[in-house]
Amino acid sequence: MHDSFVLVVLFVGMSVFVAHLFAVVFEKTRIPDVLFLMLVGIIFGPALGFLSQNSFGYTGKFLTMVALILILFEGGIDLKIGELRRILWVSLFMTFGTFLLTVVAVTLIMHHFGGFDWVIGVIVGSALGGMSPAVVIPVVRMLKLRGSSRTLLFVESAVADVLSLVVSAGIVEAYKAKATLLPSAIALQLSLSFLISLLVGMIVAAVWSSALRKIREFPNTIFTTFGVVFIVYSVAELLGGSGAAASFVFGVLLANFRDISH
Question: Residue 112: is its pLDDT beyond 70?
């Protein structure tokens, strides 16, 4: 047990340095560093057997959650509200259209070529239908995209993440309970998840923007905003929303609060 924990700590420490090395390689070759990091994980995991998913325990899930929160928050801060307003409906149309096409394609392939049940195909398709913000946002930032393309990919990844999670989870629960799958129930859950995330992000951003000027007068407050981001994530999740989407909304509104107030 002790040796496994030490190996995990060593692996995490080495990953930090390797990630910076791969970022330099990306600048030179334009090959995403995520591919190299995935390769390292495959080598140390299934290939050599040094680490397994169980080795990380709750630590792995916690680190993944922290990384996703910070990535989405930073992605939201980088967006301008004017650009977001201009591209929002196009982004939503592309997100839902891409998600639907992915689900249909994966379901047909799994059913006709893999012999799987239709429901299993829909579950896998909905799980694969969302682009992970943890991959998209860093790659977009490294590619130095600007304007509409940058905003479009940021919003699409954040919305698709929630869409994929809610739809796949709803279908899995209905399948396990052997209940009839109602699209209206999934649509309602999806709408509630987005609404809760939006409200939590908006309310906390408004309160924190007003309080930030006073808080800055106190010493050692540089990390207080990051603490608030974690609170936003937790509150949204506890209320049944998406903490990831709420963190993204909080970042967008916090960075553009002055323009919104005007």
Answer: yes
